[in-house]
Amino acid sequence: MNNLQIDAVHLREINLPLAHPFETSFGVTTARRILLVELEANGVTSWGECVAGEHPYFSEETVDTAWLIAETELAPKLLDAGAELSGGGSCPHLFSQVRGHRMAKAALENAVWDLEAQVQAVSLANLLGGVRETIACGVSIGIQSSLQVLLQKIATEVEAGYQRIKLKCKPGWDVKVFEAVRDRWPDIRLSCDANSAYRMRDFDHIAQWEQFNLMMIEQPLWYDDFYFHSMLQKRLETPICLDESIRNRRDALAAIDMDSCRIINIKVGRVSGFSEAIAIHNAAEERGIPVWCGGMLETGIGRSHNIALSSLANFSLPGDVSASARYWEQDIIEPEVTVSRAGEIVVPQGPGRGYEVMRDRVELLTVRKTTIRSKARVMA
Length: 380
Fold this sequence. Notes:
The chain is α/β, with parallel strands linked by helices. The chain has 13 helices and 15 strands. It has two domains: 6-120 and 357-379, 2-Layer Sandwich (Enolase-like, domain 1), CATH 3.30.390; 126-355, TIM Barrel (Alpha-Beta Barrel), CATH 3.20.20. It has helices spanning 63-79, 91-94, 102-120, 124-128, 147-160, 175-184, 203-207, 227-233, 249-257, 274-286, 300-310, 359-365, 375-379, and strands at 6-24, 27-41, 44-50, 134-136, 138-141, 164-168, 190-193, 217-218, 240-242, 263-266, 291-293, 333-334, 344-346, 356-357, 366-372.
């Protein structure tokens, strides 16, 4: 295709309250500060979303660090790329001088992929190499105020058709919880996510979880670890799934070779964008390791990107890509993302993301905005 010429990069922060509080081992989230990226180029606009949180708890990045790096480093590189920018796959090279800041990079890169798909008049899923017309959906349920409240929420999601239930867990909220859930639903697909809440002293405790027939135990130990996860995996029949530890293809290969995990959660925002996500997907597929797509409390913009990514062949396990209404009273896209009673989302086939951004609603939610343009073109 012809080179893309970015005319402007718009950064904006919106504030959006969650429909229900979401608790993990990091704490409770009731509202999100969200950085959105809008690109103007080739007569169209495209969108990306930064998944960084308000605090550096899941990642060292925050909304504010992502804003700074996007504004001062990444956006200027995009605007002045010239012939180097042929599509989303050009972004890793363009951004390579900037170390880290993967969530900031992903927000801009993913917007470029969306732009490329619109210019080519193909779906984003098709451009990424997707092969699925529908994707299987699981759901992530946060730590609740009581076991009874948790069971009620699970009942709602099972009735809604979700194909896998993931429970957030932490010390003191694990064995009794799993036991109660399995007593009521002995056959559902069940997994847990510890978000790095356990340590080596907990190995014997975690080994007790084998009795609950979990699909996987996600990121039980340190967020940056392979070695001790490998030690734990050798004690377990239940697959360990790594999330935070996997930053790129090299990490995925190392984790697989060390038997640190037997499943990988790919979050496109965590790994710098679609280019690296596809590379991880391909490396895992070549080695027989299934992957699935994790969620980061995204709006419909990030959610639409997750749907497109999940259409790739090796996304063979239900991901955390669920309906808009599970998280927001009103999303910022139309139509909102919905899940069928079979626990599936239809992959859009129209150009780009397949969902329209509700610009009036976005403007209403915006608390700050800036526009970056190419200095060379402004002077011209």
